[in-house]
Amino acid sequence: MTTVHDFPEKSGSASNATAKVLSDRAEGEAYVASVCFKHGPPRLLGVELEFTVHYADEPARPLDPDDLAGALGPHTPRTLRPDSPALPLPAGSPLSLEPGCQVEISAQPQTTLRHLDAVVSADLAHLESLLAARGLYLGDTGIDRHRAPARKLGTPRYAAMERRFAPMGDGGATMMCSTAGLQVCVDTGEAHDLPVRWAAVHALGPPLLATFANSRIHAGRDTGHASARWLAVMETEKARTRSAEPGKDPAAGWAGRVLDTPLMVLPGPDGRWDAPDSLTFADWIDGRGEGAGLGKPTEDDLAYHLTTFFTPVRPQGYLEIRYLDAQPAARWLHPVALLAALLARPSTADKVLELCEPVMGRWECAARFGLADRAIADVASKVVDLGCAELGTTGLPPETITEISEGVQSLVRGSRSHQS
User: Fold this and answer.
1) Which region ranges are annotated with the description Disordered (predicted)?
2) Looking at beta carbons, which pairs linking 17-20 to residues 24 or more positions away fall under 8 Å?
């Protein structure tokens, strides 16, 4: 497993002179299936932590990118300072920025959750120390509680995304510039286990989204929604945000969807990366991009297209689980450990599907109402019980397991009391 970013620093065309040209749809689908679903025993675990950044003395003050760069020093990503050495944090985690200057720690994947905890905790403490020295701190929710969305990074990719999403409403700008997620990365697993594992990570979405939802307040206003962050994601382009359908062949289903989705941005030498309207990647392969001056696409072009999907679960050779709101820095491990426990054994994944069946696919309901929805709360409670009972499989110390179990159980306890 390797951590893959959205390549915001890429300049020029996504293609290069040596990249293989895709001659037909079958070649494109075969490429997607091969790079997005790599099989083998589940071995590695990773996490990507996003946070909004605020001034300690005035959280609602717009963030000055110069202040952030001054705090991050040699760790400043090149999307903000092109001449930065962009050093990883001391324990090895690369640092990146979202369009609104949300910071993101992308931990190197580890073979045990205990090792991942050590790496992330060290790098997170270092980041917090750097920010505190300049009067800044990390937000503790999945959306900016204090400020309206404002793009701070001027990359061609983000500018093109902003233009594309603007006619669709406020969701795109909010997603890009105001939200922060916690993304858990797990191995795809053995080929024969993939359909159940793929179905399980999706089935867990609504109950876990509701359990860890904390993004109700945005820009000083009560949105009335448990996860305004996830609603913002859903309010952008449906073709690239809707959940995948379970099936016997996830790789084939995903490959077909990728080729039938319109291009979002198209890297080019002129600095304006707007893609032709409604041109799907399959259209491009079939030669229907010639009117826009496009030659045949390559595997590099398709690899870039893959970075423009924001689904609840995104396959990248591993499964990137994207539906969780960012958590307070001190509690990032809780949802990661719970998910790791729930996916540790095929038999547990089977049980997950059974428990989650009543609320399968209820993403919008989970984002709007969270645990206030009785059916979702009931399933969430059972899922948390199952996950906490399996925490012993994670290899974490007993005291850490107790802390996580108590913390996660406390999130669903209120809904249990309400149902009593």
Assistant:
1) 62-89
2) 19/298, 19/299, 19/300, 19/301, 20/298, 20/299
Instruction: Compute the CA torsion angle 343, 349, 354, 359 (nearest 10 deg).
Output: 40
Question: What's the pLDDT score for residue 14?
Answer: 52
User: pLDDT by residue (tens digit) across 128-152?
Assistant: 999 999 999 999 999 999 999 999 9
Nearest 5°: phi and psi at 280? -80, 165
Residues 46 and 110 sit within 8 Å (Cβ to Cβ): yes
Q: Which CATH class is domain 41-249+309-415?
A: alpha beta
How confident is the model at residue 13, as a pLDDT? 45
Sequence length of the chain is: 420
**Which positions of the chain have pLDDT values less than 50?**
1-13, 420
- Alpha-carbon distance of 325 to 231, in angstroms, equals 11
The CA distance from 146 to 268, in Å, is: 36
Domain residue ranges of the chain, discontinuous segments joined by +: 41-249+309-415
Q: CA–CA separation, 372 vs 365, rounded Å?
A: 10
Q: pLDDT tens, 21-45?
A: 999 999 999 999 999 999 999 999 9
For 59-155, list the strands marked E by DSSP. Answer: 95-97, 103-106, 136-138
